[in-house]
TrEMBL record:
Residues 52-135 form the D-glutamate N-acetyltransferase-like N-terminal domain. Pfam families: DUF1611 (PF07755), DUF1611_N (PF17396). Residues 141-334 form the D-glutamate N-acetyltransferase-like C-terminal domain. Gene3D superfamilies: NAD(P)-binding Rossmann-like Domain, P-loop containing nucleotide triphosphate hydrolases. It comes from Sphingomonas hengshuiensis. This is EBNA-1 nuclear protein. PANTHER family: DUF1611 DOMAIN-CONTAINING PROTEIN (PTHR40690:SF1), GLL3100 PROTEIN (PTHR40690).
């Protein structure tokens, strides 16, 4: 699970982590904490929240001092809220964490050092403020040149519905089948899990496709880069990131990620989700600009809110309707095996 580009100048993140959930009430906005528990659980010791938080990772609730005594070396802000801002109610517990001996790690757009109380506490305690969402320097303009190797990109009908989980699961399955493959992280949580990558939504728009080319360079003919998708090309706010990533990554195969229980865009209730078919069609038309051979390998459903029999029936019906493999990578099984096989075909 290597990545050729690191977003933090090679800094090794201090581990294990105490995961901070703030006052989050929507699981989709706690995807950093939840993703770290699911894919790097051995590096997480507990969670911390403020009053009003209704989301949990299932880890023990700990104070910063308790977490430090349990071996934690840093607090990770596990929230990915709209705008990537640090809440006023978070500052006191973040300062407390530094006073307990923990460094702070954030993947938010707002820099930790821009908050005077945090900057002052860091100077006073000697703790580090580590911002993950920092692109590398000297990103080139995209060339559109076809590169060696094979690429798979996860795309979505919306944000926070499984693109990262799907990419990680597919990468693991590719490797298990003997494929030479790397996971390429494009968001804060993926970078924390993989140890490298490029935070695509922090890249200046003119360099977005170039950053994707930089992230997934020339490779041997049989090598696969499994690239974590961002946003949705139908998203009213984030489509620009999704399109730049699509053009620059030049995927040979893409997998559409969808939450069948979601009808409206997360955080933008006035916008209905596009259909899976619409995303397939538009991805092929736009992605074909830099890779005319682009194809859809299948569909990844997030069925966490469904009972197993309901999920299986739903995916079977969609499989028949779309004529493509449909699977939940977390549930696995024969359906996921079929999705993997069709992507590798």
């Amino acid at each position: 699970m290597s990545a050729p580009v690191v977003a933090d100048d090679g800094l090794t993140l201090p581990q294990p982590y105490l995961l901070f959930l703030g006052d989050t009430t929507e699981a989709g906005f706690a995807k950093t904490a939840l993703g770290l528990v699911d894919w790097a659980g051995d590096r997480c010791v507990g969670e911390l929240a403020v009053d009003g938080c209704t989301v949990t990772t299932g880890l023990p609730l700990m104070s910063p001092a308790e977490a430090r005594a349990a071996g934690a070396r840093s607090l990770v802000i596990g929230v990915a809220n709209q705008g990537g801002v640090i809440g006023d109610r978070w500052i006191a517990p973040l300062v407390e964490a530094m006073e307990a001996g923990l460094d702070l790690i954030s993947g938010l757009h707002q820099r930790l050092g821009s908050v005077p109380a945090l900057a002052d506490a860091a100077r006073r305690t000697g703790r580090r403020l580590i911002d993950i969402r920092t692109p590398p320097s000297a990103i080139p303009i995209a060339t559109g040149r076809k590169r060696g190797g094979k690429r798979l990109l996860t795309v979505g009908t919306d944000c926070a519905l499984g693109k990262k989980y799907t990419a990680l699961a597919l990468h693991r399955a590719f490797v298990a089948r003997g494929a030479d493959a790397d996971f390429r992280a494009t968001g804060q949580t993926g970078i924390m899990i993989a140890g490298g990558g490029i935070p695509m939504d922090a890249v200046v728009s003119d360099f977005e496709a170039g950053a994707a080319e930089m992230l997934s360079p020339d490779a041997a003919p049989g090598h696969w880069d499994v690239i974590e998708g961002q946003g949705s090309i139908y998203h009213p706010a984030y489509a620009a990131v999704s399109l730049g990533l699509l053009h620059g990554s030049q995927p040979d195969v893409f997998v559409v990620c969808h939450d069948p229980g979601r009808t409206m865009v997360l955080g933008l209730s006035g916008y209905a989700l596009p259909s899976v078919e619409d995303v397939i069609d538009l991805t092929i038309r736009l992605g074909g600009r830099t890779n005319p051979a682009i194809r859809c390998g299948g569909v990844s459903f997030n069925t966490g809110r469904y009972a197993e029999d309901e999920a299986e029936a739903l995916m079977a019906a969609e499989r028949d309707r779309l004529g493509l493999p449909v699977a939940d990578p977390i549930r696995g099984g024969a359906a996921f095996d079929a999705l993997v096989a069709n992507c590798l075909a």
